[in-house]
């Protein structure tokens, strides 16, 4: 039976550099190491193009090459006969290899030295095993196909969007053994992602944001492809990147309005997969680990499939939540506790409860609308419909992020104070609860 690239994907994780043999136009051979041999599909592989060199000159003159790859666990070697097709310097494949190369470079002490110029795509013509001793390999820690089947059943059983977010990450832990994970959704403007659920961290980080295109999570969203980094790399450290981004926006003064990102300070492997529903990007599912090489190609496949199923579940529950029943009611104010000052900054709709930062953006605008209606007229009952029809909230015409913003706001309130809450009272309806009176202030 002919050996295919699918069968030897473990050799292509970048742990051991490949050996690339090329030939000049006059027949002179050249052998060198190549940092990355990446799996594209069963018939194609991509090699990292990093330097203008003799190798590059040979490939362009004589497109047929030989590459030897090694399984880092068993030591089994394989020789690949490849034919050069093209070079990609942008797009999903390039960004995926760029992120992985950053981890490889950091692991090898070459951070800042390796720079990906392009992804050279080759057709696989033949694969032959190289004779030699092979070590026994331990069985995988779990059957990912069985895990995906179990995870799919859990998603199908979810009936509420709020519960689905937590269930999605609990399923990653229980079925796939992922101890640290985040669920982020795409903001209305399409330029940022915000955290709605997390698992495995001291603080939840609900409401923390990452720009599309920034790091593993942002690139996965931008390119709509799985991004895996097998080793620790400062270049893709979110904790550092978030602080630098906040400082760039206006110095230390902006920091109190940024919810700290909950990720590991030094993740040694990261995997981000897009959450999609049809052609619509909903968000990103992110997993990380303190172990090197925790995630591989099989994990990419399994979590990518899981992310697609999660996207369908989110979309269906969003549509269900949009079906309002009844009209909002009003209620007379009742005796409340000591008043609290609520400050609203119109520039970014950020909200402060006293001196404590709560939220900003669309969720902040929603909170301000609810707080004003409550403080001025004593309202406690609201429905999604009236919020959706309010143009000042900047909700998109296509899609429905309102329910997810309400969930985000509800979770932030639960974390930051014990005198305000948002409680769901029915399909498309909720209650704004306040046990202290609100003193509203429009700040500069």
TrEMBL record:
Q: Which residues form the GAF domain?
A: 160-324
Output the superkingdom of the source species: Bacteria
Stored Pfam families: GAF, PNPOx_N
Report the PANTHER family cross-referenced here.
5'-PHOSPHATE OXIDASE PUTATIVE DOMAIN-CONTAINING PROTEIN-RELATED
The entry's protein name is GAF domain-containing protein
């Amino acid at each position: 039976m002919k050996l295919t690239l699918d069968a030897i994907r473990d050799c292509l994780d970048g742990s051991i550099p490949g050996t690339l043999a090329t030939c000049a136009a006059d027949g002179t051979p050249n052998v060198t190491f190549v940092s990355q041999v990446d799996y594209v599909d069963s018939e194609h592989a991509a090699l990292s193009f990093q330097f203008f060199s003799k190798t590059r000159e040979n490939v362009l003159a004589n497109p047929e090459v030989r590459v030897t790859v090694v399984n880092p666990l068993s030591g089994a070697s394989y020789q690949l006969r490849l034919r050069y097709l093209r070079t990609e310097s942008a797009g999903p494949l390039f960004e995926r290899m760029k992120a992985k190369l950053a981890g490889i470079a950091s692991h090898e002490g070459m951070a800042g030295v390796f720079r990906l110029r392009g992804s050279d795509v080759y057709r696989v013509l033949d694969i032959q095993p190289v004779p030699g001793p092979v070590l026994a390999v331990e069985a995988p820690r779990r059957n990912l196909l069985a895990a995906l089947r179990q995870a799919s059943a859990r998603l199908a059983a979810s009936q509420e969007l709020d519960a689905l977010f937590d269930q999605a990450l609990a399923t990653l832990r229980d079925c796939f053994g992922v101890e640290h994970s985040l669920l982020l959704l795409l903001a209305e403007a399409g330029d940022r992602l915000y955290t709605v659920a997390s698992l495995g961290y001291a603080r939840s980080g609900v409401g923390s944001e990452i720009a599309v295109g920034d790091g593993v999570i942002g690139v996965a969203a931008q390119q709509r492809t799985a991004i895996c980094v097998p080793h620790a790399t400062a270049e893709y450290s979110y904790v550092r990147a978030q602080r630098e981004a906040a400082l760039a926006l206006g110095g230390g003064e902006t920091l109190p309005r940024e919810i700290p990102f909950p990720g590991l300070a030094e993740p040694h492997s990261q995997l981000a997969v897009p959450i999609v529903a049809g052609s619509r990007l909903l968000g990103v599912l992110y997993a990380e680990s303190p172990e090197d090489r925790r995630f591989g190609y099989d994990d990419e496949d399994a979590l990518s499939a899981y992310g697609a199923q999660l996207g369908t579940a989110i979309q269906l529950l969003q549509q269900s939540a949009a079906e309002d029943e009844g009209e909002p009611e009003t209620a007379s104010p009742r005796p409340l506790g000591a008043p609290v000052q609520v400050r609203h900054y119109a520039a970014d709709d950020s909200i402060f409860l006293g001196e404590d930062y709560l939220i900003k953006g669309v969720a902040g605008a929603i909170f301000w609308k609810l707080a004003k209606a409550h403080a001025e007229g004593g309202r406690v009952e609201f429905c999604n419909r009236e919020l959706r029809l309010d143009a000042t909230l900047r909700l998109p015409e296509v899609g429905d992020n309102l329910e997810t913003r309400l969930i985000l706001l509800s979770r932030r309130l639960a974390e930051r104070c014990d005198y305000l809450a948002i409680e769901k009272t029915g399909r498309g309806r909720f209650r704004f609860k306040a046990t202290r009176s609100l003193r509203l202030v429009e700040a500069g």
